[in-house]
Amino acid sequence: QVQLVESGGGLVQAGGSLKLSCAASGLTFSSYAMGWFRQAPGQERGFVAAISRGGSSTYYVDSVKGRFTISRDNAKNTVYLQMNTLIPEDTAVYYCAAKWSAVLPTSGYTHWGHGTQVTVSS
Of 34, 77, 83, 116, which is most buried with the most CB atoms under 10 A? Predict the structure, then answer.
C-alpha cells in the first residue's frame, strides 16, 4: 500500500520560509517522479513543482520559480519543497504526489498524500 505523508506546513509571515517534506512508503521510490501541488480555498488543485526519478531534472510553475526548490533523497524515500520569500498568495494546502514515470510530469499522478496546510500572513 502506497503512502505519502506530508509534514512541515504551518503559519509564516510574508517573506518567510518553510520546508515541506513528504515521506513515501510502499513503492520503489527511485522509480517514481514526484510532484508538489497546492489547493487554495475555492480554487482547484494546481501543479507547483516536479522532480525526476534521479533528481537531476526539475520543473516549476512560473509563480514559484526562483522562490521554491524541489529536491529528493532517494535513500530516505523523501521529497522536499523548500519555499522562500513566501507571499500570502502561496497560502494553500500542499500535496505531494507520485507517478511512475521516466519523464517530468505535471499531471497524471497516481498516488497522493493528504496534504499539509501552509498559511502566509501579510
Answer: 34
